[in-house]
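Lab notebook, bench 4. The sequencing result for the construct came back, and we need a structural model before the next group meeting so we can plan mutations. Quick request posted to the team channel:

Model the 3D structure of this chain.
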Amino acid sequence: MSRHRTTHPFLVHAALGFLPILGLLPATAAADPINILFVGNSFTHGRYGPVRTYNGGFADDDVHDLLCPSPASCSSAEQGTQVNPALTPPPGSTLLQQLDYLQANPSAQYNEPGPYGGVPGIFLQFTRDAGLDYSVSVVAVSSATLTGYLNNTGSEAGDLPLIESSAWNKVVLQDQSFRPLPSTITVNGHSVATRGDPAGFESAVTGLINGIDAADKTAGKPNAAVTLYETQPLASYGYTSSNPNAPIFGSSTSPPGGLNAPYVGDPNPIAAMASDLHNAYEKAASDYMASNPTGSSVDVALAGDAWVSAIDAGIAVQDPYLTTNPPGEVDLWDSNALDACCTTPIGYHPSAYGAYLSALVLLDETTGVNPESLLPEFDPSNPGYDDSAAYALGISPEIAWKLAIVAQETVRVGHAIPEPGSLVLLSGIAGIFVVRKRRARR
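Done. Here's the predicted structure in token form:
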């Protein structure tokens, strides 16, 4: 499933990054854009600003939010004026008092108006940087599951025809964060239940891809290429917090070892959860292709693996609940408890850094473009820097470049089955940064 490519010096990629285009363009001079659909939930649309609405809108070149196609026809979840408790703090002299107020007053809680851009919006900007012609669409309902989309019921009712369509050249599928997990795991020799439903996850993947393939067959077009988007491990599933400024506060929390904290006590809970997600997504892809030899080609974008790489390389914090973390390390998870209140804790959804890293992995896996080739993202002197996703999201050129290396290396070596405690990755990745910089300066 993976593409193993040679790593090239950083600046040389300015030219090499455009080579994958040649394999995507038809023989005619005027090529139609590649239509890609992202299917998921708040991990796809990005729960918080500035990610949630980045490159979202109603113009032809925006991300097309299929559930919010016009100002007059948004889904109920995407309507209304944004409430942001972090910007308008609720009553209370301490954070816990403010959180208590929000829990007692739902109208003051955070909401998620569309149209959505999110991770697809970051991906869209990357394709522009790479000179690719992509039309990007999204179907993303908060808390949605792939099973819900397949069954066309509940909050996902009415969305299935948008997904099972011949309109797409490529489709990205992302399930709820915990559903691919094993139903039970072993932590310190004890069996612990999770919220995982791996059989339901695989069944939904198979059902949706079969529906997409059937639509393509009826239309007489090739099967859409499918990418399964492996989401990140959840800090709130692996750690408790004694930091009053970073409480695990929310209705989805549970005691250590409970359904919403099953990895607490593992020696490396982030890597352990990422390893379980890795194996589940890889298995779903290989099982589908083994059972459907004439169906869609299915790849896996190992975004969750890349998060572990960034942590292991010292770019990102491992435990966002600590009172202090090493200077210079970014938080890949959301970190504002007031925004997170009151259904999910912090350490759950991606921050701008986490969404950016996931989008880099998705770019590499779905297009073959090496993320290091995106020079506008890393060079303020480049004419395109002011239009870059890094600039828009407040990510420094240095961090953006390091995340690009992490993403590229993850895709390059990442499809082997990982050891639970180490995952894929590259204990020597910090040295890779040094080598790349030396080459870039020559």
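The radius of gyration is 21 Å.
Will bring this to the meeting.
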